[in-house]
């Protein structure tokens, strides 16, 4: 899985209760295609055994500075990146002091690869001035801090100190490992999910979009180094770590967020399933079921976001990718939308196809571009499709 396939990650596990989470992180890295070497401190061995990591990674686990000559140099040189998870207050203090009294500290002192540090400790330890100073020192070294999260702690207390979730660590690591991208430093705006058009205080018109495609695009663009703004309707897809997020509900709210967000953007990825219609009048009170058991609604066109933003997009040279979910004449309707709404690229798919479209993890699209070219893509996961689409956009930006 891009960008982990074929890469080497050194995972350093120190002695906190969150050490068990490192096993899940190692498993996810291996599943993504990375080779994982593990260093466990003596303290960590009190919480989780080496055999666990050997079973997950298929590689020997390292614990002793004296296990073989130059191990602390070889492990660092072999890695593309290093993740310290969990990083206890003690290990953070030793790293900040430049200690080399064990395999973990000696390896990190000698390593010139990117380092991600994931703190995990009691809230009072995290907030102590010594830890604050040590963390600032690590940032000064160029290390990236991920977490800690705020929430319940192992000792029954609650507050900042929880080790960051695996998904966030993987996202930050992926951004480090991603090869140089044409999206680096560019602002990318992504819309995702459905919109809702209220008809009374408790009911609304909407659609079955989950937001997964838009969230996958936002995550992939952020991983490639872009400054990503995700404008998300009320879908149920997991929010991707990294991008800035604006939550909206109606088409008008999404349009307002777009008009502000696009002012300094270079790319727009319009993956939201924006409702085409809304009620002419929204009732102030809940509509009751009448004696006839029938309700007549009068609808009008909702704002067309691509039409409303076209002048701004053309004036600022914003590359725009759109989506078209069709039930018939897919390519003809997609081509008409591409040309009529000023898009550079459109992804067209058919509603009702197995494993494609709304509320599933996969999608099958045909790409149409402004030059008249057509490319049918195979069935892909939405994460894979996001990268294929961004590859195509990067190629277009080069010309």
Provide a descriptive summary of the structure in words:
It is a single chain. Helix 9 (212-223) packs across helix 14 (382-398). The longest helix is centred in the last third of the chain and has 17 residues, at 382-398. Helix content is 35%, strand content 23%. The chain has helices spanning 19-31, 50-57, 71-78, 89-97, 103-110, 123-127, 129-141, 166-177, 212-223, 251-261, 305-308, 310-316, 330-340, 382-398, and strands at residues 8-13, 35-40, 61-62, 81-87, 115-119, 144-145, 149-152, 158-162, 187-192, 197-198, 204-205, 227-232, 244-247, 267-270, 277-279, 299-301, 319-326, 345-350, 362-363, 366-369, 374-376, 380-381. The strands form six sheets. The chain has an eight-stranded mixed β-sheet, sandwiched between helices. A six-stranded parallel β-sheet has the order 3-2-1-4-5-6, with helices on both faces. A two-stranded antiparallel sheet has the order 7-8. It has 14 helices and 22 strands.
């Amino acid at each position: 899985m891009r960008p982990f396939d074929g890469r080497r990650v050194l995972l350093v596990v120190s002695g906190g209760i969150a050490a068990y989470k490192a096993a899940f992180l190692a498993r996810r890295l291996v599943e993504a295609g990375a080779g994982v070497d593990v260093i466990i401190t003596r303290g960590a061995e009190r919480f989780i055994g080496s055999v666990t990591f050997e079973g997950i990674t298929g590689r020997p686990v390292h614990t002793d500075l004296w296990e073989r000559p130059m191990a602390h140099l070889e492990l660092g040189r072999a890695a593309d990146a290093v993740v310290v998870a969990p990083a206890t207050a003690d290990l953070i203090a030793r790293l900040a002091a430049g200690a080399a009294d064990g395999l973990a500290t000696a390896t990190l002192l000698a390593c010139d690869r990117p380092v991600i540090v994931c703190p995990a400790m009691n809230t009072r330890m995290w907030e102590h001035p010594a830890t604050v100073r040590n963390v600032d020192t690590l940032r000064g070294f160029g290390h990236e801090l991920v977490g800690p999260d705020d929430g319940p702690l192992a000792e029954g207390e609650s507050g900042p100190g929880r080790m960051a979730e695996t998904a966030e660590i993987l996202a930050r690591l992926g951004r480090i490992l991603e090869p140089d991208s044409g999206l680096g430093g560019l602002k990318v705006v992504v819309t995702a999910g459905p919109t809702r058009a209220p008809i009374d205080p408790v009911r609304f018109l909407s659609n079955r979009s989950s937001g997964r495609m838009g969230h996958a695009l936002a995550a992939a663009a952020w991983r490639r180094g872009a400054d990503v703004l995700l404008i998300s309707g009320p879908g149920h897809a997991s929010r991707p770590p990294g991008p800035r997020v604006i939550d909206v509900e109606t088409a008008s709210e999404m349009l307002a967020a777009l008009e502000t967000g696009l002012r300094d953007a270079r790319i727009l990825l319009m993956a939201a399933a924006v409702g085409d219609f809304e009620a002419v009048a929204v009732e102030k009170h809940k509509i009751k079921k009448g004696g006839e058991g029938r309700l007549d609604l009068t609808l009008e066109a909702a704002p067309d976001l691509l039409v409303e933003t076209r002048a701004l997009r053309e004036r600022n040279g914003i590359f725009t990718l759109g989506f078209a979910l069709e039930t018939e004449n897919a390519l003809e309707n997609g081509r008409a939308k591409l040309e009529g709404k000023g898009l550079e690229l459109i992804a067209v798919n058919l509603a009702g196809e197995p494993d494609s479209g709304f509320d599933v993890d996969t999608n099958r699209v045909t790409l149409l571009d402004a030059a008249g070219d057509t490319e049918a893509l195979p069935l892909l996961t939405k994460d894979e499709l996001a990268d294929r689409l961004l590859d195509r956009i990067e190629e277009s930006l080069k010309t």
